[in-house]
Amino acid sequence: MSSASSTWPATSPLVTTSTLLSSRAEISSTSPAVTTSPLLFSSLGPFTTQTSQTSFPHLSTTAHFETSATPQSSLGHFTVNFTITNLPYTSDLENPDSAKFRATQRVMNMLLDRLLKESSIGPVFQRCETTDLRYGSCSNTRVDAVCAYSKEPSAAPLDRVGLYHQVSNKTRGITQLGPYSLDKDSLYVNGDQSSSLGLFCSPTPALPQCCPLPSSSS
C-alpha cells in the first residue's frame, strides 16, 4: 500500500500540485480598506485557473439605506364611491372570491388608476383598490374604492372640491367610466357629495328613478 505522502506521477497530464506565489497582487484602488490575498494558481489537466480572495472589512452582510435629511412622506388615503347603472348586481358580485368579482375589481382598479393619474393629484398618486361591490338602487352596482397618494408632512390637505370637479369632468359629467354608465348623482369623493362640497344645492334630494315615469293622459 502506498503512503499518504505519495504524489501523482510527474508525467500525469491531468492534475498537478497548486503553487502559492510569494508575491502579492497590487490592486489599483482608492479605498484603503480593500485588501487582496496572494493569488493562487492551480492546474486541472490542460487548464490553468487563477483565484483570489478579496475582503471588504468595511462592508457588512446587511444593507443599510440612509434617507435624506428631508422628512419622509407618508401615504394619505381618500375614498371614491359611485353607482354603475349598466352592471346589474348579482350574487357573484357579493362574493369577493368569485371570478366575476375579481374581474370587475381588476377593471375598476385600472380605470380609476388611469383617471386619477391624469388629474392634478397625478404626481403623488399611488393606486386605487376597489374594496366592495354593493347592491345599489334599482339593482345597480355600487362601487367602493380606497385610493392612496404620497403625502408630505407640510403638504396642504386634499383638495376634495378640485378633485371632485376633475373626476366629474373626466367621466363626462359623472355619466361614463370606460364601458360603464354611471348614475350622475352617485359620486362621492372622500365621503362628500357635490351638494356638501358646495358645488350645487337642491332643496330636496332627487329620488332614483328605475323606470320612466308614465306620461299623463290628456
Structure description:
The protein is α+β, with helices and mostly antiparallel strands and 218 residues long. It has a domain at 74-189: 2-Layer Sandwich (Alpha-Beta Plaits), CATH 3.30.70. The protein is 16% helix and 25% strand. The chain has three helices and eleven strands. The chain has helices spanning 91-94, 99-117, 160-170, and strands at 19-20, 35-36, 40-44, 47-51, 54-55, 74-84, 125-135, 141-151, 176-177, 180-181, 188-189. It has a four-stranded antiparallel sheet with strand order 7-8-6-11. β9 (176-177) and β10 (180-181) form a beta hairpin. The chain is globular. The N and C termini lie far apart (125 Å). Residues 2-70, 195-208 and 211-218 have low confidence and may be disordered.
**CATH fold-level label of the domain at 74-189:** Alpha-Beta Plaits
Could you give the order of the helices and strands? EEEEEEHHEEHEEE
General form = globular
Give the CATH architecture of the domain at 74-189. Answer: 2-Layer Sandwich
- How confident overall, as mean pLDDT? 72
List the helices and strands and how they pair.
Layout (H helix, E strand, L loop, with lengths): L18 E2 L14 E2 L3 E5 L2 E5 L2 E2 L18 E11 L6 H4 L4 H19 L7 E11 L5 E11 L8 H11 L5 E2 L2 E2 L6 E2 L29
Antiparallel strand pairs: 1-3, 2-5, 3-4, 6-8, 6-11, 7-8, 9-10
